[in-house]
Amino acid sequence: MHDLVIRGGRVVDGTGAPARTADVAVDDGRISAVGRVEGRGREELDADGALVTPGWVDIHTHYDGQVTWDDDPAPSADHGVTSLVMGNCGVGFAPCPPEERDWLVGLMEGVEDIPGSALHEGIRWEWETFPEYLDALDRRQWTVDVGTQIAHGAVRAYVMGERGARNEPATPADIEAMAAIVEEAVRAGALGFSTSRTIAHQAIDGEPVPGTYAAEDELFGLGGALAAAGAGVFELAPMGSAGEDVIAPRTEVDWMRRLAAKTGRPVTFALLQVDADPDLWRELCDTSAEACAEGASLHPQVAGRPTGLLAGLDTTYGLLDSVPAFAPIGALPRDERVAALRDPAVRERILGWEPDPDTRAALDASYERFFLLGDPVDYEPGPDATLAAEAARRGIDPLELAYDTFLAEDGCGLLYLPILNYSQGTSEPTREMLLHPAAVLGLGDGGAHVGFICDGSTPTWMLTHWARDRTRGERLPLELVVQRQTSDTARLYGLEDRGVLAPGMVADVNVIDFENLRLHTPKVAFDLPAGGRRMLQGVDGYLATVKSGAVTRRDGRRTGATPGRLLRGARPAPAA
């Protein structure tokens, strides 16, 4: 008798091996057999005709505050994620003395667009040091396993105070003190250290993230702390990663390569296609592969789809914001705003607006870059799906089409604006990145940018688009798509006990109706503490998600099980 048996599914085990029909048996939270299982299970899942995969391992999230109050980190948990890593991009909440709490909330709010009011009300502060933060998390449980990194911004402010927060140079004594904190954190169970060097990341007061301008002695001192601890990943958003500078990334990859070689620790950095130099990503990927061939573990972290802004009536950004007649309406409560926009007189005032020539030119350009999302949602739209093209087909002004789109679905309609990874209007560069041997899949940003991005659903998109539906180019093999978001991501962070369906591994499993898997259009919800706003994206097709042998979701609905725990440090592979 087994605890759980998943019967007769099409098993894609996470190693890249061909799919096969098999049963999966689970005992004591671990996989005990994959193949023909004769014994019965105390609980059984019928997977006949379904896809059976490891649970997704998402290495780039920002649930650092949310996991202190929420046992089900959405949207990631809705999309088959069973293990996640947070503390990315140099922002986090430990170490933190009481007097710095408001400042760290403002840093997270500015960089990751998480409502400060929600963080202020929701976070349960039970720590000052990073080990105390881990202890606080250790007292909680979730539907997923949670691992975290220690963030440069918090460490710099803790050691250097105002000097650190304002990006003044660190002294040798500062570096020594920061390195000691990082080493202590990794020895206590942090999965790594993160920093940010892009000026696109700013606190709510407009100041760049602490560490943005850190010199090499500081970066290598902190990387040396990982070497001293003998564990941990060095993660960063490098200069120019948001397209603000196309020269800096080449300089950045040079010191990252040397850091990985010197410390012997993996370095992973955000890499996206930028409009200013659409082929730069290729050079950085190839340089990283050269470094790996020389023994330095340097891995570009790439996205599974374009990074795009969602614009609507409840989002951070909206096309109507520049229209003077919309300003007083935009400030109204949501229901009143929608009602006002349905007033013919209001509609006439807004659509009758005559912008000056410069504003008109900027708007016309934006109409060529905004897309209708479609249903089912499409993150690789062709040129015929732009706002301008669709408006021309209908014989109306693009602003009118945007207006009507926003009012659709009871005022929940959205437009899509790809800003990275879509320079040439195709996802072909993304496909090549996903195939690159040095690259690792990440950048979903689950829990962050909640007012205009919902890329935490990327694990599902990897299946629906890349393995099944893509028409504007080649697809990717299903086995590779599964491997990219299971064993590959787990291995980078030393989580060797998961990401593969094999005896002895943690029993994290997704059972998926692959043929009917479908992403819904993102929706704005106001369900964070203090009524805070966030984007969520529904999905059909996850028949069951299993975490450590416990079924946490059936047919997309929670079972109430919360088997997820804190991941303290790397996890060895089970003994053969």
TrEMBL record:
SUPFAM superfamilies: Composite domain of metallo-dependent hydrolases, Metallo-dependent hydrolases. Residues 553-576 are annotated as: Disordered. Residues 563-576 have a biased composition (Low complexity). One of its GO terms (molecular function) is hydrolase activity, acting on carbon-nitrogen (but not peptide) bonds, in cyclic amides. Residues 43-551 form the Amidohydrolase domain. InterPro entries: Amidohydro_3 (IPR013108), Metal-dep_hydrolase_composite (IPR011059), Metal_Hydrolase (IPR032466), Metallo-dep_Hydrolases_sf (IPR050378). GO terms for cellular component: cytosol. Gene3D superfamilies: Metal-dependent hydrolases, Urease, subunit C, domain 1. This is Amidohydrolase family protein. The lineage of its organism: Bacteria, Bacillati, Actinomycetota, Acidimicrobiia, Acidimicrobiales.
